[in-house]
Design a protein that fits this description.
By secondary structure, the chain is of the alpha/beta class. The protein is built from 15 helices and 22 strands. It has a 7-stranded mixed β-sheet, sandwiched between helices. The chain has a 6-stranded mixed β-sheet with strand order 9-8-7-10-11-21, sandwiched between helices. It has a 3-stranded antiparallel β-sheet with strand order 5-6-22. Helices cover 40% and strands 21% of the residues. It is globular and about 70 Å long. The termini are far apart. Strand 3 (19-24) and strand 4 form a beta hairpin.
Length: 474
């Protein structure tokens, strides 16, 4: 286990807690460590400390913020193997996915460092009206204030980095709350940040459940709340936090469209890669597949013929692609949703059983509207196939969802690709690649119930700063 102080990083030091909780390995339930459990009182104290240093953080020179961000990227890189192993143990996610998470984390910190030099404003032509004659106008960007970052369990290190690194770049102190199931990698990350700055209170961490989160997001001294998680919780945070700015990444039930002119081998490969990575616990994993009728049968055959390539087992093995979900409750929920879909008329083409605590890679066909497997975010290794008459029907089905994060289209037609870009109501359209493709430097976020605001260091820094207009009469 990593070496960092006991307790929670609050204020300039680490604060002991009355309670601790076991952190378990989802694959076999063994205890891998213990974590401090925070309280609402500690959350309020963390905000006190953040407010107290906010001016000092905002005034840090650009070179100091950039150096810190690069130092953290280097520190994670030096420990990338250890971080990957820790992520496997606390998330139960396959090793290959945890290695990718660490690599993306490093890129995120490096990209945030680059954005420090891009914080600038513009001049404004105030003399467009006679009243502006003789005036000089320009605007600059200023930190929004204290940031609260709340991360999900599925990519704890990466999601926390997307909260912390842009906040530092913007000149904002940040209080981060990891998911209760997965606090260890984030605690280690925060320790690495704090040990590299003379102002440790700029980054604090509080563990705990809903009362802790509620204390953080309802504090009127907060400048912005950045949350990654379920739509239901995100909606509640937005209501509770108002009028504080909220940035919400709330997941989806991502769709993949297979047009009549698609490369079917590539599309089938995308379903296998995009539907089951991270054991399906990714908000842009392939969940709904809409194949045009002229190719649907052949495409389905290709998917099923290769399903055996998706290795199920111990997530510590480099060959494993699907393992246990975060906890037994999640496994039971996904299995129940599969049963409800088949009861509603869906056909089970593969999988559907839980063996040794792991839900097998599952493929359903003809899943109707109105059941969770199609309408909601399943967050498990389940892919739903539906045959449609043409691309028009496919696009309409994609847009019928209350979610809109990412969608992908497989087609050889440039016209179809640009139609998708124009017509699909999502935050990102991916052509001839999995909807789960995400570069950590691109704007990432959704529409409708998939949230509001954008992540990616450049775009998050903009979200975490406000314009300040200057009007001068020389």
């Amino acid at each position: 286990m990593p070496d960092y102080p006991d307790g929670l990083p609050i204020g300039p030091g680490w604060v002991s807690t009355a309670d601790t909780a076991d952190v378990v390995f989802p694959y076999d339930g063994s205890v891998i460590g213990t974590a401090p459990v925070g309280t609402a009182e500690l959350a309020s104290r963390a905000v006190d400390e953040a407010v107290a240093v906010a001016r000092e953080v905002a005034s840090l020179p650009s070179r100091s913020r950039r150096a810190l961000l690069n130092d953290v990227a280097s520190a994670v890189r030096e420990r990338r193997a250890e971080f990957a192993q820790l992520l496997v143990l606390e998330t139960g996610k396959p090793l290959v996915d945890c290695q990718v998470e660490v690599a993306r984390t490093i890129v995120t910190w490096e990209a945030a460092a680059e954005e420090v030099a891009r914080l600038h404003g513009e001049t404004v032509p105030l003399d467009l009206l006679p009243s502006g004659d003789g005036l000089v106008g320009f605007w600059k960007r200023k930190p929004i204030g204290v940031v609260v970052g709340i991360a999900g369990f599925n990519y704890p290190l990466l999601l926390a980095s997307h909260k912390i690194a842009p906040a530092i770049a913007a000149g904002c102190p940040v209080v981060v709350k990891p998911a209760p199931q997965t606090p260890l990698a984030t605690l280690w990350l925060v320790h690495l940040v704090r040990s590299r700055t003379g102002l440790p209170a700029m980054v604090q961490l509080v563990t705990g459940d809903a009362p802790v989160g509620s204390e953080l997001v309802t504090d009127r001294r907060i400048g912005a709340v950045s949350f990654t998680g379920s739509a239901a919780v995100g909606h509640r945070i937005a209501r509770d936090a108002a009028p504080t700015k909220t940035l919400l990444e709330l997941g989806s039930n991502a769709a993949l469209v297979v047009a009549e002119d698609a490369d079917l081998d590539a599309a089938a490969d995308a379903v296998l890669r995009g539907g089951f990575y991270a054991s399906g616990q990714a908000c842009i994993s392939v969940q709904r597949v809409l194949a045009v009728s002229s190719v649907a049968s052949e495409f389905t055959g290709k998917v099923l013929a290769r399903l055996g390539e998706v290795t199920v087992g111990d997530p510590r093995s480099p060959s494993t692609r699907v393992s246990a979900l975060i906890d037994e409750r999640s496994t039971a929920r996904v299995a129940e949703w599969v049963d409800k879909a088949t009861a509603a008329g869906a056909r089970l083409l593969a999988g559907g059983s839980v063996r040794d605590g792991v839900l097998e890679p599952t493929v359903l066909a003809d899943v109707p509207d109105g059941v969770e497997c199609w309408d909601e975010e399943i967050f498990g290794p389940v892919v739903c196939l539906r045959t449609v008459s043409d691309v028009d029907e496919a696009f309409a089905a994609v847009n019928a969802s209350r979610y809109g994060l990412h969608a992908s289209v497989y087609s050889r037609s440039l016209k179809t690709a640009f139609r998708a870009l124009d017509e699909l109501e999502v935050g990102g359209v991916v052509v001839n690649e999995v909807p789960g493709f995400r570069s950590d430097t691109m704007p990432y976020g959704g529409v409708k119930d998939s949230g509001i605001g954008r992540e990616g260091p450049r775009f998050a820094v903009e979200e975490l700063t406000v314009t300040r207009m200057a009007v001068l009469r020389p």
